[in-house]
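Example 3.
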Amino acid sequence: MGKVVLVTGAARQLGGRFVRRIQRDPEVERVIAVDAVAPPHRLGSAEFVRTDIRQSSIARVLAEHAVDTVVHLAVTGGRPVAGGAHSAVKETNVIGTMQLLGACQKSPTVRRLVVKSSTSVYGGTPRDPAVFTETTQPKSLPSGGFAKDAAEVEGYVRGFARRRPDVAVCVLRFANILGPFADSALAEYFSMPVMPTVLGYDPRLQFVHEDDVLEVLRLAAQEPRRGTLNSGTFNIAGDGVLLLSQCSRRLGRPTLPLLLPALTWVGSALRAVGVTDFSPEQMRLLTHGRVVETTQMREVLGFEPLYTTTETFADFARSRGNGLLPPERVGRAVDRVAAMLDADGPQDDVDTVEGARR
Amino acid sequence: MADAKVIPFDEDRPRRRMPRRVRSVPAAEQVAQEPAAQEPVAPAPEPAPAERGDGWDRRIAGGLAFLRRRVTGEYEVDDFGYDKELTDQVLMSLMRPLYDKYFRVEVKGIENIPAKGGALIVANHSGTLPLDGLMLQVAVHDHHPAERHLRLLAADLVFMLPVVNELARKAGHTLACAEDAQRLLEAGELVGVMPEGFKGIGKPFGDRYKLQRFGRGGFVSTALRAGTPIVPCSIVGAEEIYPMVGNAKTLARLLGIPYFPITPTFPWLGPLGAVPLPTKWTIQFGEPIPTDGYAAEAAEDPMLMFNLTDQVREQIQHTLYKLLVQRRSVFF
């Protein structure tokens, strides 16, 4: 018997790609794509049902199609798809999840639930350990924005898992998703010509590639492979860490360090004119950074990401074009200085080197 | 000098005879140790003018290659944000003059630090500002034959301060919590901890070299879980760099810091008062205490934890007294 997979948040870029990807699986019979707005992209042979998951009509969709696997991707931090308000995103995240879980609880056919969450549920304060594991309790709960939504969504999902122990529930906490098609707030931030940063902080960032996201979602939506277990909570991130300063240098986009209050002001100004979504949540990430452990992902879920953090970022940087100070040009400038020093006597240029090091 | 609280030990000679013995020993030791200490700082001895030019060339080329990697972002940091290249090339070089010339740190018992694998170095904490931690880091790196890097565990205050948190992470320090410590120890890193915390570093001058309570002994259970040895370490000299005669508690509370030191010079002389006194330091690493012989559930046994904590504490305190007895003067 083939599986019937329901995917929420299909109008978003990631949801659309996942819908197209999962229908190629041999064991999947039908894919039902759900969103409140019509998707701007193709969905292949999937059946698109335009319904708002904030309404109880989602229960009817589940029953009508005898859905057995629900992949809940409509938990997002980005701006609304078609000119909606921020509050609509929050409502979709939280109320939508509640409705969806309510519908799943009543449905006798649902066997598997996959929820996209985020590592932002860990918050990030100076008093947190440097590396978060799945069991780390956040020192302070996120006060608002997407992080709070994700934490609340996870709370509801845990409640659902208690009430329906027969349903395999998988919560995937993704690090910052990047890639050539990324449309997240962080991708927008990295596309700014000059990146405002918090003065005196150099956060550690971790990325996960879009392709790996699709792959791990597919893995979680399937029956677990031999020797692995795909229910539970997993951190999903590429190996390694990049500092924000490294990111800006690799992108060739200069940074503008600002004091934290000034940055808050700039952030709200940018948000008002719609340049980028500079949320308090993002400010937190750009201040303290966030690194998670991925041992569970490897050993229990049995997933090996194709891209490391560095490779993900390189792939993203290639897709974005050059910034104001492309690293190749900066590197060449250093080489020119080296050539000049070779021509001159080496003795009298030590000061230059010492000065430039600083 | 003001070392009145020193307790002479049976195994030590009577105090009166000390100066003569010590005066001869450090002189010999200094001669023996000087080349070893200097080596990492200036690796290229320059015998001939031709080679001298070569050395400069190499240094400039190395500097430019370093600069190129820095400006293009092509360097690596670990999960904790530790930037090995920056630490080796820049941060260590900035601390070395303070270490070599200002505090003239003498290191003893470096062979007690294992050449590889995890180990937990437990040291006393003093000096108002955590310079002792930084000097300990340089000492381990410059004197250990394997040039091991010490990963210090620091208070959360360090990671709240702008700039400081950034530099601390890049120098390989991380927050003093069981999770981070265990992760580093299991990765085979050398971890440094000062369990006295603010109680040790912010104690009044009159209490110098009196070890404060060692927290709740969390460091022992972490070492036990990771099965790594504990190396006790005693640092003499750091207590006198800022003799803290008072503590402006109200001001400290206002600024949100654990203490606001008042020394004979600070804050009266302004920034000049913040210059540490040029004391002579001794860092001694003691015999490692093995922790791998215990059962898995031993880390949950509070009695054993307290006993081990006391053992480490006693050993550090004894070594401190011994070193104080041997010390000729605070400054030389």
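The longest helix of chain A spans residues 86-106. The mean pLDDT of chain A is 87.
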